[in-house]
Amino acid sequence: MTATKRLKYFVNGEWKQSKTDTYWPITDSSTGEVLAETPVCTADEVNEAIAAAKAAFPAWAATPVGTRAEYMFKLRQVLEEHLDELTLSVARELGKNLKEARGDVLKAIEGVEIACSTPFLMQGDSLMNVSRGFDTVMYREPLGVFAGIVPFNFPAMIPWGWMIPMAITTGNTFVLKASDHTPLTAMRILELAYEKVGLPPGVVNLVTCAPTESEILLTHPDVRGVSFVGSTPVGKKVYGIAASHGKRVQALCGAKNHGLILRDADLENAARVIINSTYGCAGQRCMALPVVVVEEAVADEFVALLTKFAREMRVGCAYDPATDLGPVVTAQHKQRILGWIEKGIEEGAELVLDGRNVVVPGFEGGYFVGPTIFDHVKPGMSHGEEEIFGPVTSIKRVRDFEEGLALMNANPKANGSCIFTESGHYAREFMRRTDAGMVGINVGIPVPVSYFAFSGHKDSFFGDLHVLGRDGVKFYTESKSVTTRWFGGQSAVRVGTWEGSSNRE
């Protein structure tokens, strides 16, 4: 019997064997097979990664920004060349079907492409003669070591699209705490970045560890900022600890996105869009649309359409090209989702479509949950308010637009929200009054392209600057303003209290 491969951690350009006694299994979500074991790195190893990043920072920050961007151009090409390999990696370790897994990698490439523009995006501002004889220039500079703590659900996009490219191209160095469940793709991209792109040692380092060791990244004096993606309870904790230790923090947290269906909506198209949004990635994404708020006048028709299309979905092995809905990430996560379905039944919602007993022939060990739909979900039912992170839809019926909007805004999370309507009036009112940070008009997944920030609100985000877009550049840089004056042979220059900073005396 072949021994299970034990993964290593990566510091200063080198893969190293951990001294830990504890390893966690990484499984093929479609079969249950153990693919490898990831180390629970020791505190010393996390500190070692931070030290390597700190040591690499001065030389990397002094590297011209155009040169740093050249690494991103090379990385983009390498990722394109290895797209099929990385797609399969995501599908195996996470369970996304091939199309969704490919999208995960393509979104990472999109983030790399944005980082290629850093020489432009990082530019500051200047103004000559701000006061008589004085000029002021504002530069953007890197801060130092940043840490990234990532979830399991986007093993390519989040570390290698949202975090690392912009962090290092602006001149910082990085320590990635990879997901314990899905580290393989992130590790492979890191390997390619060093072997094929030639990234200098210490610029990006990688560990896998338990929460206790992860907390070192939040408190260590040499870490200047933390980017986190995960659940709201953990995100609040990360934000509180890291901010109290003087770090910049962006904490992207949980969601319970709602979509509002008005009576004038194109119901068939709306149902198909929501199928894609809710059941894509097996519902394991913060921009899924697990709650649909429907005007009572069209609710029966809409629920019938949604159920019909959901039944047509093929549940199967993630890397079978015919699969529409792949497995969830682990056996434990499957049991958690099943528990939420039981909760929905206990709370009195009507189970319209039950996905609990799905069996995929030949893949009986996989972690499959079929499309599940609850109708008549009432306010106060916990499964309709809390994030399930699985292929479960809750239907809430309302009398009209105003009741629907109020119900949606009552949720403490506000990542995304959508409306389906042909009315420009209601679309505009919704856009203006919804609490969500990302809004879709007849769009089920209102994630903007990476030129714009991923901008969740309320308990879906803690911090001041979001990932991607101009916010992403600002998060990884700090401004430095320089005011100059040249005397040019003048003598007896008069000096005032607000020298150079005011035109009034």
Task: Write a short abstract of this structure.
The chain has two domains: 230 residues, Aldehyde Dehydrogenase, Chain A, domain 1 (3-Layer(aba) Sandwich); 184 residues, Aldehyde Dehydrogenase, Chain A, domain 2. It has 16 helices and 22 strands. The strands form six sheets. A seven-stranded mixed sheet has the order 14-15-16-13-12-18-19, sandwiched between helices. A six-stranded mixed sheet has the order 9-8-7-10-11-21, with helices on both faces. Strands 5-6-22 form a three-stranded antiparallel sheet.
Mean pLDDT across all residues, rounded?
96
Distance between the ends: 85 Å
Placed side by side, the strands forming the largest sheet appear as 14-15-16-13-12-18-19
Return the CATH topology of the largest domain: Aldehyde Dehydrogenase, Chain A, domain 1
List how many beta strands DSSP finds.
22
Q: Which spans of ≥5 residues are poorly predicted at pLDDT below 50?
A: none
Radius of gyration: 25 Å
Total domains? 2
**The CATH H-level homologous superfamily of the largest domain:** Aldehyde Dehydrogenase, Chain A, domain 1
Helix content: 25-40%
Tell me the strand percentage band: 15-25%
Major β-sheet profile: 7 strands, mixed
**CATH architecture descriptor text of the largest domain:** 3-Layer(aba) Sandwich
Tally of helical segments:
16
What shape does the CA trace take? globular
CATH class of the largest domain: Alpha Beta
By secondary-structure content and strand pairing, the structural class works out as alpha/beta
